[in-house]
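Bug #2210: token dump truncated for LysR family transcriptional regulator?
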Amino acid sequence: MHRRYQHSSIPTEIMRSVVGISETGSITKAAKNLGLSQPAISSQIKRIESAVGGSIFQKSANGSSATELGKLVLIQAKKILEANDQLLMLRGGAPDDTPVRLGLSNIYSRRMLAVMTKAEMANVSLYADSSAEIIKCLIDGFVDIGIYISMTDAAPDPTIEVVDQQVDEVTWVRSKDFTLSPGAPIPLLTWPGQIMHDLMTQALDRKGMVYRIAFSSPDYHARIEAAKAGIGLTVLPKRLVPDTLMMANEYYLPPPGMPKMILCARSEFRQKNEKLLDQLRDRFMSM
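Reproduced locally. Full output below:
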């Protein structure tokens, strides 16, 4: 996700927040109009201020007003949004006829492509990343709908609604020829900060078992390849274990926790995207 927010590329969502604050004179009012939380708006403004090298708004008696640098940013922001709307109109669509932005945990990306048809995804822009990043994108307003894995079924922000959720039972997995020498540390295929990492390490810590990081990568598919190569063990949802791997039922492996798959949407997008949400429920949540 970090590559997406490099200073060389500023998302239009941030431009809309800049214009929104300028027009309303208030972060609170802009957040309400845009369907975002105040922390999300503040986070966006910090990002653009970091990109342009200075403050673009200042507190005044009447709310928030643009600084001299902010006035220049505002001019460019309006130009960017106008150009964006004009580009969308080239295909005969209205300015708000934009693709639905669907954020998806990497774990579920292959399954999504398998169960949804091209026609159903014609007006969907997919973004796959870790569950933590998908949640962050939802909160910051960079995706409209999210599917991710979590240990809680609570909405991550007041502006987000949980549409559906279900327990997604996970299991240890290994290659068919993987063996572990007696007394050796458990070799893990993981990436710290992700929920699967926490499920593995917490289970092993509870049992007082020794482990080591044998392969570390944020790329989910790379970890799968490492498992196929027999380098170590990882954890996957039971229903997503590929044929090239097998569930590891060895007696010494403690059962990991029971996370949930969450389908949620930003509140202002739920009603107008009810059809897509129903499709995701039927094709994805019931798998």
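Output looks complete on our side. DSSP finds ten helices and twelve strands in the chain. Marking as cannot-reproduce; reopen if the truncation happens again.
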